[in-house]
């Protein structure tokens, strides 16, 4: 029986291979799910090394969500065709579980990225950058929406529904000002926006085209934003650019992240082109 001891493992040793407790193996033995295959001279039951593949398969099924009672049937009576069908079924189930987790991962990364940008950014520093195309769901911001309580509730419900289905991150307040209103010095928002990953033929879709944008981050109470727009427009004129696009605004450190109005941080961008064009 020495050979059996050399090739067999006690329950605690076999369990340690998988980071399991000895009690887990004893429970599987008790319910008839997985028994030790060997017995030593001292009467102790041992697990054979060639039991590793079936036990690994058992854990695969368990981790995939298959009940232990069904695993017992698979290991004892199932045909290869039945086992394959079960694996495919669990594969689809796991894929369905992975999809929302991947979306959650992207939302966390997007939201954390916005906050990291805000924390390391030097505010009130105008510049010109080339931005890629981006897509937003656009919702009117006029008094016809906000003047009536029930319309406000319906509006917010619609935003949250669309946001939950298509937004890449946590709720980041964005807004839009038309070129005409920027040139007139009117900085009231024409629309509220939610950035989405792809157009997908959404209703109320707003496309921010690829091109040059004058960009600046501003820190301070929301009511101070008109001064930030004025500063950015002055920068545009003084540096040989003209306003050829709309204005886009989005939170970097919004009111969900800060506790004082003075710490609120927003990024504003205006589409521009050189005056020579």
Description of the molecule:
- The chain is built from ten helices and eleven strands.
- The protein has an eight-stranded antiparallel sheet. It has a three-stranded antiparallel sheet with strand order 1-3-2.
- The chain is an alpha+beta fold and 277 residues long.
- The mean pLDDT is 85.
Write the layout of secondary structure elements.
Layout: H1 2-7, E1 8-9, H2 11-16, H3 22-30, E2 38-39, E3 45-48, H4 52-63, H5 68-76, H6 80-120, E4 127-131, E5 134-140, H7 143-146, H8 149-166, E6 174-177, H9 179-184, E7 191-196, E8 205-208, E9 211-219, H10 225-238, E10 241-253, E11 265-274
Antiparallel strand pairs: 1-3, 2-3, 4-9, 5-7, 5-8, 6-7, 6-10, 9-11, 10-11
Strand order of the largest sheet: 4-9-11-10-6-7-5-8
Q: Radius of gyration, rounded? A: 31 Å
The fraction of residues in strands falls at 15-25%
Low-confidence stretches: none
Report how far apart the termini are: 91 Å
Total helices: the number is: 10
Q: What global shape is seen?
A: elongated
Number of strands: 11
The succession of helices and strands, N to C, reads HEHHEEHHHEEHHEHEEEHEE
Secondary-structure class? alpha+beta
- Which bin fits the share of residues in helices? 40-55%
Mean pLDDT: 85
Summarize the biggest pleated sheet: 8 strands, antiparallel
